[in-house]
Hints:
Layout: E1 5-10, E2 13-18, H1 29-44, E3 50-55, H2 66-70, H3 77-83, E4 101-105, E5 108-110, H4 112-118, E6 122-126, E7 130-132, H5 146-154, H6 156-165, E8 169-170, H7 171-177, E9 182-184, H8 189-201, H9 205-221, H10 226-237, H11 241-261
Parallel strand pairs: 2-3, 3-4, 4-6, 5-7, 6-9
Antiparallel strand pairs: 1-2, 7-8
Amino acid sequence: MPKLVNVSQRDGIYFISINRPEKKNCVNHATALQLIDAFEKFDADEKANIAIFYGEGGTFCAGYDLSEVSEGKFPTGNEAQEFLTKYRFMGPSMMRPSKPVIGAIEGFAVAGGLELSLLCDLRVAAENAKFGVLCRRFGVPLLDGGTVRLAPIIGFGRAMDLILTGRPIDVKTGYEWGLVNRIAEQGKALEAAIELANEILQHPQECMRVDRQSAYFATYDSGGCYQTAFDYELVNGLPVLDEARRGATKFVKKNFKKNIGENKL
Length: 265
């Protein structure tokens, strides 16, 4: 199997990167499986106290690989039922790591890529970063936590703006809305994320993790079960996948070169 996800570790930092730059780091099922493996190993590694999640080649992630959706290659039937009890189509989206994760965002973090960025506790974004629920244009539902995590992070009204319109927002707007925590120069998001990670690593880790977990509980569990919210998103999204397949086919045939190949999402 090709190496679709790169993993390394240095000085307590666990680096996870999507390695499909020729596809703007769009995730297919094989990539999703490798991402799951990477995040599970990070969580189990006692020497790794924080992870940095990024994409190779100047793009974080432009979503799920719609060429696979158009061809019906994503998990279906019994395979999907077993896979989706614990994971989601983009891979680790539903996971809640026990240690902090920083997203280093260059270029596009859109559709499923936006949902993957929401897995991170903090997002460091370059000046050229773009965020959005661009899958709205092609009838592809949010199935990887977008409806669960987006509103608590940026507020319900702003989440509805992105979810209903499908419009992209730039890094300045993302920062003003609270989606972006730090802004970096183009090409230096990873460097800035490492600096932030080292700042966090200076603190006593056990106490920090306890406070982090309490914040997650107050946000997602005390008022409404995290697991139930993910299940509700899935149950509502699965019935429209036929529409998603038609939209993905339209995207692949008419829009890929224009919108992705020329960076004009």
